[in-house]
Automatic annotation (TrEMBL):
Pfam families: HTH_31 (PF13560), MLTR_LBD (PF17765). It comes from the Bacteria. It comes from Nocardia jinanensis. Signal peptide: none annotated. Coiled coil: none annotated. GO terms for molecular function: DNA binding. CDD domains: HTH_XRE. Residues 34-81 form the HTH cro/C1-type domain. This is Transcriptional regulator.
């Protein structure tokens, strides 16, 4: 039986730990790096045979108590525990996970109204695959010179960062942006493992070596950078802190608080100055 994502996490994490991490003597030869299966099993209060079945994908339904015990035995921090628990819940139940429907990719009129109301602040609607589903005029004006709207039928932030020839030229923190979008897709793949379109997007991006090198779906995850830093063709050095507002449609309204370099200008406000003074 093929391993599932939860099983792969177990194996990888056990290999990462060293005897000294759990208070065991560091000496002695080991055939493979990391802790022995028996050592983890004892710490978790399960049998080595049961742990072997989990690691090999032969047992796919660990209890919450077992997942928590293994997380403690493997010295997982809070963020890693969250990933570990989600993998245990979803790895073998993809058929029960919802697929994306056309409705979830459609921007309702209420959200369109919000986008227009946010002007002059740049804002757009983001789907679970990092597809940009709609935007206001301020965002369009800002990103058009960057090449982000070259293909308006398929606007995707991850594809732009990894595959558009302008991305490396205009993004001063390209590495951080690349990490952020890989991490965002990783989290989406855990949340919606049954989304075939999401898998297609990730598979397509894997053809780019930079994305493949960053893709670690069983890892604990990287922190998401809150700012994009552009060398804008028309505006020069522009820092863009961003905030996401989640909706109940599995979409996000993303606000780009466009700012020149900190020493030369201030961020645009969400409320126009005249209205704010009333």
């Amino acid at each position: 039986m093929a391993r599932n994502a939860f099983a792969e996490y177990l194996v990888r994490r056990r290999a990462e730990l060293r005897p000294g991490d759990i208070g065991l003597p560091a000496g002695g030869r080991r055939r493979t790096p990391g802790l022995r299966r028996e050592e983890v099993a004892v710490r978790a209060g399960v049998s080595a045979d049961y742990l072997a079945r989990l690691e090999q994908g032969r047992d796919t339904n660990p209890s919450i108590a077992v997942v928590e015990a293994l997380a403690t035995a493997l010295l997982l921090d809070e963020r890693e525990r969250s990933t570990f628990g989600w993998l245990a819940l979803t790895s073998t139940h993809e058929a029960r996970c919802p697929e994306t429907t056309d409705e979830s990719e459609h921007v309702p009129e209420t959200i369109e109204t919000v986008l227009r109301a946010l002007a002059p602040t740049s804002a757009f609607v983001l789907g679970r695959r990092l597809n940009v589903l709609g935007w206001n005029a301020a965002w369009e004006d800002f990103v058009t010179p960057l090449g982000l709207l070259d293909n308006r039928d398929e606007v995707n932030l991850a594809r732009y960062v990894y595959q558009h020839p302008m991305a490396r030229k205009v993004l001063r923190n390209w590495t951080e942006a690349a990490d952020t979008f890989a991490e965002t897709l990783r989290r989406a793949s855990l949340r919606w493992p049954g989304d075939a379109g999401l898998r297609e997007t990730i598979d397509a991006l894997h053809k780019t070596p930079e994305f493949a090198a960053r893709w670690r779906p069983q890892g604990a995850g990287r922190p998401v950078t809150p700012t994009l830093r552009f060398d804008h063709p028309g505006l020069g050095a522009v820092d863009v802190p961003f905030e996401s507002l989640e909706s109940d449609r599995e979409q996000s309204v993303v606000v780009w608080l466009v700012a020149r370099a900190p020493e030369s200008a201030q961020a645009l406000r969400l409320v126009p100055p005249r209205a704010a003074g009333q």
